[in-house]
Amino acid sequence: MWTSRDGWILLFVVFCLILVLLFLLWQVSFHKKPDSNVASEDIAVRPLQSERGRSTPWRRHATQQENNTAEATTTDSASVVVPSAKKLKKKKEAHREAERERKQALAAAREAQRERLERERQREEEEREERERRKEERLAELERARREKEELEAKEYEKWKSSIELTEQGQEEEEVSEDLLPQFISYIMEKKLVVLEQLALEMNMKTEDVIQRIQSLQEQGQLTGVFDDRGKFIYISWEEMEAVANLITTRGRISIKELSRRCLDFIHLDGKYE
Question: Where is the composition biased (Basic and acidic residues) (predicted)?
Answer without folding.
Answer: 94-104, 111-138
